Amino acid sequence: MKRLYRIGFSPGCPKLAITLPGAGSIVEAFDGQPLASLWPDEPFVGTVEQECPGAQLYACGEDAVAFTDAAWESSEDMYYVFSIGGCEILAAQAGDTWFSIINALDFAPRARTAAEPFDVSSSFYAPIFRIHDRPRQIFCLEGTPVPGDEFKYAYETLGFQGLTFQEVWSEADGFR
């Protein structure tokens, strides 16, 4: 049975703010638009807003996830999961720490009826994605034919912390 989750950040999740190199303007929102072309030759400049020693995941704005490079390099399964869908992986540096920021670019197909969040009958799949009505939020599915390709499954299996998964829809119960 398919379930749709809105991905959020737990209250203690550390935060990473990024700016465009040389421009000084803060990137506050990720909305499914590619950002790599804004400054492709240099990494984004990061500032850790909330220190959390040993943290592996950081909130980047309200709608992008940043992994420390140490966490990213130790989790090939997560790298594989993101290689499946249309995610942009952006490099950022905050002091001596490097980050990989996941910017979800895929949008699920529009819903056919008001009873579904998107066209769930389609063959659409991306590990994390956006919905047209909510471009500033990121979502993931559970209950796909290959659980190992699912973001939530990989996140939980690898023991990451810092995210929340709020079930917002299921095939059995509809919207919550």
Walk me through the structure.
The chain has 176 residues and is mainly beta. The protein has one domain. It contains 3 helices and 12 strands, in the order E-E-E-E-E-E-H-H-E-E-E-E-H-E-E. It has a 7-stranded mixed sheet. A 5-stranded antiparallel sheet has the order 9-10-1-11-12, covered by helices on one side. A hairpin with a 3-residue loop joins strand 11 and strand 12. It is globular, with a radius of gyration of 16 Å.
Write a brief caption for the model.
With 176 residues, the chain is mostly beta strands. The chain contains three helices and twelve strands, in the order ββββββααββββαββ.
Total helices: the number is 3
Number of domains: 1
- What share of the residues does DSSP label as strand, in percent? 35-45%
DSSP E strands, number: 12
Q: CA-to-CA gap between the ends?
A: 15 Å
Radius of gyration: 16 Å
Fraction of residues in helix? 10-25%
Strand/helix succession: EEEEEEHHEEEEHEE
Structural category is mainly beta
Please give the structural blueprint.
Blueprint lengths: L2 E7 L6 E4 L6 E2 L16 E5 L8 E3 L5 E4 H5 L2 H9 L2 E8 L2 E8 L24 E3 L2 E9 L8 H7 L5 E8 L3 E2 L1
Parallel strand pairs: 4-7
Antiparallel strand pairs: 1-10, 1-11, 2-3, 2-4, 5-6, 6-8, 7-8, 9-10, 11-12
